Structures are given as structure tokens and as C-alpha cells.
From TrEMBL:
GO molecular function: iron ion binding; iron-sulfur cluster binding
Domain NIF system FeS cluster assembly NifU N-terminal: 7-132
Alphabetized SUPFAM superfamilies for the sequence: SufE/NifU
Domain of life assignment: Bacteria
Name of the protein this chain belongs to: Iron-sulfur cluster assembly scaffold protein
Any one biological process term the GO annotation gives: iron-sulfur cluster assembly
Entries under InterPro entries matching the protein: NIF_FeS_clus_asmbl_NifU_N
The species this protein was found in: Candidatus Roizmanbacteria bacterium CG09_land_8_20_14_0_10_41_9
Pfam families: NifU_N
Length: 166
């Protein structure tokens, strides 16, 4: 029986052998999200291609995560889920899709799956904005919230963040 506070075999497997780990060369979009309070930082890189119907898809994807086992496992899963999806499909991915793939996550670790989804959304936003593409309203609002939370973290923990960067 799985204890709700322990990791499933799937989590352990993705943590020990993460898929799509590493930075991509010349990515088309990059997402950087983090929580300096728990110390986890996630960078997600995407390369865009086209499918047979001529729709833009995530052709390649990679990540670097500095964080807990759940943060690494959820990053690994989000890259699997997003690869070869159209951008519209990728934007529909939710933390529940990540958790379902991992079978479950301890409640205290659910926010880690949110970081992975946020990083993917940010990478797609970055691609749209760098390539002069129209940005869906919900994605733009989401991006503003992420930017605001980064500023709040800097304001609240600026001194500490500065120390960590030395
Ligand atoms: S403990 Fe914060 S993302 Fe895992």
C-alpha cells in the first residue's frame, strides 16, 4: 500500500532517470520559474517545428531543475507530455495531468507539479513574444502573475537572494 506521504515508484523512477534532461542549444523559447523560499528553480527550453498539418508543435524540449525529487520528476513528466503536442494542446496541460502520470504526489509536494506547468507556459509565452506572435489573453495574464510573484520574492527576500547569488 502506498503511503500518501511517500513517493510512488513512478516518481522515484523519473527522479533517478529524468527524461529530456539538459539545456537545448538555441531554444525558440525558455521558461524560468522558481520559488526561492523552497529553493527550487526550473528552466525549461523548447524548440518549435511543424506537424504534417502545418501546425506548430513542440519538436524538442529540455529542462534543468535545481530542486527536490518531486520537482525533478514533475519536470521530466511535463517534458514527456508536451513533446510533439501542438502549442494549443501544450497550453492545456494541467498539474493534474502531471500528477496522474506519476500516479500521485504527497500533498505537500503538489506545488512542485505546478512549477513544471508554469515553466512550460512561460517557455511558450517566451516563444510567442520573441517571434512577434499573438499571445492568447489568458497566457499573457498568467505571465504577468509570474512576473509579479518574481518581484514580490525579490522584494521580500532580496537581501537573502543576493547572498545566495554571490
Ligand atoms: S519543494 Fe518546492 S518545488 Fe519541490
Amino acid at each position: 500500500m502506498t503511503n500518501v506521504h511517500s513517493y510512488t515508484k513512478k516518481v522515484i523512477s523519473h527522479f533517478k532517470h529524468p527524461h529530456n534532461y539538459g539545456k537545448l542549444k538555441r531554444p525558440d523559447g525558455t521558461g524560468e520559474v522558481g520559488n526561492v523560499v523552497c529553493g527550487d528553480v526550473m528552466h525549461l527550453y523548447i524548440k518549435i517545428g511543424k506537424n504534417k498539418q502545418g501546425r506548430e508543435i513542440i519538436k524538442d524540449i529540455g529542462f534543468e531543475t535545481y530542486g527536490c525529487a518531486a520537482a525533478i520528476a514533475t519536470s521530466s513528466v511535463i517534458t514527456d507530455l508536451a513533446k510533439n503536442k501542438t502549442l494549443t494542446e501544450a497550453l492545456l496541460l494541467q498539474k493534474d495531468d502531471v500528477i496522474k502520470t506519476l500516479k500521485s504526489l504527497p500533498p505537500i509536494k503538489v506545488h512542485c507539479s505546478l512549477l513544471a506547468v508554469d515553466a512550460l507556459n512561460e517557455a511558450i509565452h517566451d516563444y510567442f513574444s520573441k517571434h512577434g506572435k499573438p499571445i492568447p489573453k489568458a497566457l499573457e495574464e498568467f505571465h504577468k502573475r509570474i512576473e509579479k510573484s518574481k518581484c514580490e520574492i525579490e522584494d521580500r527576500y532580496g537581501e537573502w537572494v543576493g547572498e545566495q547569488r554571490k
